[in-house]
Design goal:
By secondary structure, this protein is of the alpha+beta class. It is about 45% helix and about 15% strand. It is globular and about 55 Å long.
């Protein structure tokens, strides 16, 4: 299976889903999703696997159990890579992310310790500057309003210490190349650019070691 980009029908599918997020729309356009959205994503993940690890596509259904928004379907397709990285397609275009989008409590403790440490904290600042120079934005899903407990409010990296996660996000609007095999190179270049951030997080934070809740 060779990746040839996402056809225009993929973008039209999501534009339509944004207007009519219903089971009737989904059922009527399921073949378009399978052929024009999902199949190209699977082909891309297959092409990336040797370098970036196995890919996993998120299910298209939303978890609405605890949400006021009861729309049943996601208006984008997303996939993660075992080696680090995330690929996202919607009616707005393509995006690539990397880093740690969420941190468990034990991960957050290690993250703050590494940010506070002069050696690893300064290293992170350099990594972020390099990643952003390549066109990505480095973000946090949530940020405290003040310093976390145990850390001074005037710490030189207080902005980073207030973050509750850290990840990069690079996006492109809809362009003709999105419907060609050239889209793969955009994804690869973005994943290469974020590797220093991914490496820093893997080294100083790593996966959660907390036992699962019962």
């Amino acid at each position: 299976m060779t990746f040839h980009g996402w056809p225009v029908e993929a973008l039209e599918f999501y534009a339509g889903l944004e207007d009519d997020n219903s089971k009737d729309y989904w059922n009527a356009h399921r073949r378009t999703y399978d052929a024009c959205v999902l199949a190209p994503m699977l082909a891309l993940l297959d092409a990336l696997e040797d370098e970036f690890g196995e890919g996993r596509v998120f299910r298209p259904n939303r978890d609405v159990r605890f949400s006021a928004d009861k729309s049943p379907y996601k208006t984008a397709i997303g996939a993660t890579l075992a080696g680090g990285g995330y690929v996202h397609l919607s009616a707005d275009g393509l995006a690539v992310a990397g880093g740690y989008h969420m941190l468990a409590p034990d991960q957050l403790d290690r993250f703050r310790q590494a940010v506070a440490d002069d050696r690893s904290g300064r290293q992170l600042q350099k990594v972020i500057a390099a990643v952003e120079k390549d066109g990505a934005q480095v973000r946090a899903t949530e940020q405290l309003k003040t310093a976390p407990r145990g850390y001074p409010k005037d710490h030189p990296r207080i902005g980073l210490l207030r973050n509750k996660s850290l990840y990069s996000w690079q996006e492109w609007p809809v362009e003709p190349w999105l419907s060609t095999s050239a889209a793969q190179q955009y994804v690869v270049d973005a994943l290469h650019a974020v590797r220093p951030l991914q490496k820093w997080l893997d080294q100083y934070v790593g996966p959660s070691t907390a036992p699962p809740r019962r």
